[in-house]
Amino acid sequence: MKDTYNTLAQPSPEILYKEKNSKFFGYAFPIESEEDVKTHLEALRKQHHGAVHFCYAFQLGTDTVYFRANDDGEPGNSAGMPIYGQIQSFGVTNVLVVVVRFFGGVKLGVGGLISAYRTTAQMALAGADIIEKTINVHFVISFDYKNMNKVMRIIKEKNLEIVAQKMEESCQIEIATRKKNAEKVFDIFTALFEIDIQKV
């Protein structure tokens, strides 16, 4: 069972690609949601006032993948899809790649555009720091105070990450574990008396 995926450690440095007076600025960002996409695009629009096109592609998810490609006014499939193709060839997810174009007065034609957007996206991803992350499964464990030691001992033994905890009349701890260990962890807690575990 595959329980890792590749993504970016941090946003890539800005890169510039020139083709027949047109300038293409390339950026790659790690993202967690579509909200992040909007935030990055708004920031780039403020940064590059005179740019005509903000073409991009993003991919989110590990088991179920969701992606979008946007040509932002360039001819159909001449920008967004070539950018997305690079996200696929680098094998990364939870990633947004944006290419900002300043038109230089010379038309590049569809072939030229595809090549320029693809190259810029490739350069942006090549300049990024790609890391491997684990796909984690989250559980919430509910129990009474008297069982605290039992629960904490397992969390420590199994190296489980505590994501959140609520200690009121009863206790609730949200834990995260690698996907491949999830079933085992679930079974350990299920076997315990007076302890409830639910997948989040």
From TrEMBL:
Domain Impact N-terminal: 20-125
SUPFAM superfamilies, A to Z: Ribosomal protein S5 domain 2-like (SSF54211)
Domain of life, source organism: Bacteria
Endpoints of the signal sequence: none
InterPro entries (alphabetical): Impact (IPR023582), Impact_N (IPR001498), Impact_N_sf (IPR036956), Ribosomal_Su5_D2-typ_SF (IPR020568)
Gene3D superfamilies (UniProt xref): Impact, N-terminal domain (3.30.230.30)
Family: Belongs to the IMPACT family.
Listed name of the protein: YigZ family protein
